[in-house]
Design brief:
Layout (H helix, E strand, L loop, with lengths): L29 E3 L2 E4 L8 E4 L13 H12 L7 E5 L3 H7 L6 E5 L8 E4 L2 E4 L2 E3 L6 H21 L4 H11 L8 E5 L3 E6 L4 H14 L4 E6 L12 H4 L8 E5 L15 H11 L3 E5 L2 H11 L8 E6 L8 H10 L2
Parallel strand pairs: 3-4, 4-5, 10-14, 11-12, 11-14, 12-13
Antiparallel strand pairs: 1-2, 6-7, 7-8, 9-10
Helix pairs in contact: 3-4
Protein name: Mur ligase family, glutamate ligase domain protein
InterPro entries: Mur-like_cat_sf, Mur_ligase_C_dom_sf, Mur_ligase_cen, MurCDEF_pg_biosynth
Keywords: Ligase
Length: about 325
């Protein structure tokens, strides 16, 4: 097994087992400076899970069509005795697999009549088995749904009587990975959470998940446009809708203005102006993480007497603001 993340319990993201199954996380990013094809084209998968298809990695791909081409090549690698699992909530993925006839194809979604994973009376179930995963949010529940399907496909043959118990135990015991819904501090009145979200879809999904999980908390979203894609204005409009559910949103200027020319650069000030209307949030602009902290400290008192959750989203260090965020959260009453 090999996944691209560090587990929260300190264990590595890889493990050598005794079986014949190898599980690897792959994405469409390029393989190396001398090989611009996507990494997942080197894996020769028997089973493939497609859980999203969005434009990203603007430093590598010129448009969504280029990414779709890589996904088509991946699909063509799946053998006749394999299977493709795809999220049927994605129109792009549906279109991609609609003509596949050389191997089995299965759509998935959680909390539907034909789903493995369902929500009953504020609790998560797989059939009659109650689950208690540390992960939360629709995007994580979709991943659990397809993990159940893939594991069942393989393990019910090897261990028909006990495979469900093993899968349920793995789901409940998995601690998650660092920088994903990572709680850095928690008190009765305040939470500080770090998340790697930087794509507009990921930002939206993360805020939505946090809002549902921590009902009654005021959500303070902090966002640093730092990745190659978030630097660019390709998602200027989409970002303006990404912060729905956030009560206060502070955006910094992009991390390195010199990295991208002005004509294709995300206009953060313009984005902030659109947030009030499109995301129904109080928007604030900060020129850098240092100014963000100054403005945040001045604005937190407006939430006195209310629980707050400070959600910091960046794919980088965010100027090292996390210790200071914890200090501010400790003082909140």
């Amino acid at each position: 097994m090999f996944v691209g993340g560090i587990r929260k319990d300190g264990l590595p993201g890889f493990e050598l087992g005794n079986g014949s199954i190898f599980v690897i996380e792959g994405d469409e990013y390029d393989t190396a400076f001398f090989d611009k094809s996507s990494k997942f084209l080197h894996y020769k998968p028997t089973y493939t899970v497609l859980n999203a298809l969005d434009f990203d990695h603007a430093d590598i791909f010129p448009d969504i069509t280029a990414i779709e081409t890589m996904f088509k090549r991946l699909i063509n690698l799946v053998p006749g005795n394999g299977k493709i699992f795809y999220w049927n909530g994605s129109g792009s993925l549906k279109k991609l697999v609609q003509h596949v006839s050389f191997t089995k194809v299965e759509g998935f979604e959680w909390n539907r009549k034909d789903s493995c994973l369902t929500w009953k009376k504020h609790e998560l179930f797989w059939a009659d088995q109650k689950l208690n995963p540390s992960l939360f949010g629709d995007h994580n529940y979709r991943n659990i749904e397809v993990a159940i399907r893939v594991c069942s496909e393989i393990l019910k043959i090897q261990n028909p009587s006990g495979y469900k118990e093993g899968i349920a135990k793995a789901i409940d015991s998995f601690p998650g990975v660092k920088r994903r819904q990572d709680i850095l501090f928690q008190s009765p009145n305040a939470i500080v959470m770090e998340d790697f979200a930087h794509h507009p879809v990921a930002v939206h999904e993360t805020i939505h998940a946090v809002k549902k999980r921590f009902h009654g908390y005021k959500i303070i979203s902090l966002f640093e446009p730092r990745s190659a894609t978030s630097h660019r204005n390709v998602f200027q409009k989409e970002y303006s809708y990404s912060f729905i559910g956030s009560d206060l949103t502070i955006l910094t200027e992009i991390h390195n203005l010199k990295k991208v020319s002005k004509d294709i650069r995300l206009d953060v000030k313009k984005l902030v102006q659109k947030l009030l209307k499109n995301s129904k949030t109080i928007p604030v602009y900060a020129k850098d993480p240092k100014e963000l902290l100054v403005k945040l400290e001045k604005m937190i008192p407006q939430f006195t007497g209310q629980k707050i959750l400070i959600l910091a989203m960046s794919n980088g260090s965010f100027g090292g603001i996390y210790p200071r965020l914890v200090e501010l959260a400790r003082k909140h009453v």
